[in-house]
């Protein structure tokens, strides 16, 4: 026995499986089991391809609102000027406000490699200037590049 609904969601009644299949064939539609664990199980007479299309459309709409984990890059230099540092700070805050993560890169060129402690101090100062952020990846030297990743606190 199945509780049968039509395409609009209106109840047709409690029918045997064979009666429900015959009813679906009369309406030139498919019999789809919606709630198999209900007592009695619930089936719906609908066009199955149309049903799949609508479900796919719902999922697509649900995914539209979700942002992917985009990582935006900010490149600094060891001897960057204060005005440039302020501009980079504004851009970083803007990216964080949009929900993106920010990867801070500081490339050490030539003799700058000997001033690693200055580089770490600059990156840490920059992170502190961003305000209340989560440090996803603390500053770490990867070859010649000092990298850190920050995200907005939830």
Descriptive notes:
The protein has 154 residues and is of the alpha/beta class. The chain has two domains: 2-64, Ubiquitin-like (UB roll), CATH 3.10.20; 71-152, Translation initiation factor 3 (IF-3), C-terminal domain (Translation Initiation Factor IF3), CATH 3.30.110.10. The chain is 37% helix and 33% strand. It has helices at 17-26, 48-64, 82-97, 116-129; strands spanning 2-5, 11-15, 30-35, 42-46, 71-76, 101-107, 133-142, 145-152. The strands form two sheets. Strands 2-1-4-3 form a four-stranded mixed β-sheet. Strands 5-6-8-7 form a four-stranded mixed β-sheet, covered by helices on one side. It is rod-shaped. The chain starts with a strand and ends with a strand. The mean pLDDT is 90.
List the main descriptive attributes of the protein structure presented here.
154 residues; alpha/beta; Ubiquitin-like (UB roll); rod-shaped
